[in-house]
Amino acid sequence: MTNPLVNLSNLYMVLKFEYPISLIKIIDSELFILAKNLKSSLLVDKHIKDRTAQKTYLCRVNGEFPTERITVDKPIDSASKKIGMFWVDCDNGKEALTEFERISFNGKTSLVKCFPKTGRTHQIRIHLQYLGYPIVNDPLYNQPTVWGPSNGKNGIYEFSKKQIEENFLKIHTFEAWIIKQESSENEIDEKETVSKYDTSDIAAKRKNSQDDQNDNKKQKIEFNLVKSSNEVDDEFEADPSLPAFDGTKLTKDDECFECKQIYRDPVRSELTMYLHALSYKFDDLEFKTEFPLWAREDFNG
Asked: Is pLDDT of 236 > 70?
């Protein structure tokens, strides 16, 4: 399986030239709204802009979420424009309102329905962090080492904006993706590099990643089989007047740092988050998606 977010983005780029489109993008959701004509597109966009769309999301959070329905109305402002992180800021933030309702609790985590009434960036994730029930695998807002011991609960941040940004960059560094470094002038120890960034399960992760790549190749092959054998894409037809690629002229810079690195591929668990767009409703028109696997009653995560 490939990253759903990437699939949606690619589909959007292809179809936007043919149809007016409203695209709801969220990691691991696959909620895609396609308007077949301008009238429908304007209707959907108007509901979203006027905040009259009824939006429902699902998420899985740490701990036992309260049984009563909870409303959070804390304003949100940017904590780091460089990284794209936000936080609760009652003085400078923009209004934000989210309602939450618990569905179930499995002893470790809770399944929660979310009803955002405004559309601030990362609104649901930030308001859950504020309540002290962050999304289980949220790479931004479930990181006490980034935000401080309180992890943003009740809007308490032990670090400044600059410190939060620095803390995040220390964790999410490109070195964590390196699985091999060829010897260089500094004679980097490959074993030390691997152990330093906790990649003991690299073999398994790379196998899973290879399986994903094989699935992707299979999908491409199946797609090509559907195309007519005599179909010609003029846009991508090679220009005979241009020189062909000559592999003998390819050169490699032995001092190039990037050329010496071998990076591991991300696995699905690193590309998904337990936050899911369940439905968008515009008057009598409703778009729905299925419950994800992590929303099942027997889920142990």
From this structure: no
